[in-house]
Amino acid sequence: MLTLYTFGPAFGLPDASPFVVKAEMLLKFAGLPYRTDRGGFRRAPKGKLPYINDDGQIVADSTLIRLHIERKYGFDFDAGLTPEQRGAAWMFEKALEDHFYWHVVQARWCDDENFARGPASFFKSIPWPVRPVAQAVIRRKIRNTLHGQGTGRYQPEEQRQLLARGAQAAAQMLGDKPYFFGETPCGADATAFGFIAGAMTPSFRQPLRDEIENHPNLTAYVARMRRRFFPDAAQGASA
């Protein structure tokens, strides 16, 4: 059976990483039987999760997992979409990965209160005398990455303007459709759910959540996707 390596449920989400959620959604969409394993991070080929073991073939990176499923199993995640929609769907999910993602990372790791609520738990296995040092080193690396990528250079008001526009654009694309490109979910929905739900978790205070919650169609979309694909997580989120 195919194995998906994950971090595991956290913060009221199916997984702490939106990329892992995306990969799991792709497996669900394709109807492939799989199991999850939370113990694979140390062996991750690219030093990140997710990755899969498909009958001995290791595939790392959520997008490469999608391409693998398409090639090996002949599953078309965008069946029914026009060529124009296929292009728009691909660009839409890449925009989410390159825009929403970094603001979520900044909110979780750079805000002291948010860090204590969530990412600090990732260091529990490190002995206490070393743990604060390890936390400081990793958080410094993340701040440097955010500065190099550009997100870390924005002032709070600038960030809010960008996030407001991003949330508005997502809401406009969704409109009154059940899924982003029609009546059935496509590949972009795997990404959209992972990243929008990740931003919406009440475990952290973050500007992006505030902006998303200004759009009822986005909040309804996340609730709908939870109920359909992660019913156990949906019950936990509403508890």
From TrEMBL:
This is Glutathione S-transferase. One of its GO terms (molecular function) is transferase activity. It comes from the Bacteria. InterPro entries: FAX/IsoI-like, Glutathione-S-Trfase_C_sf, Glutathione_S-Trfase, Glutathione_S-Trfase_N, Metaxin_GST, Mito_Protein_Transport_Metaxin, Thioredoxin-like_fold, Thioredoxin-like_sf. Residues 7-77 form the GST N-terminal domain.
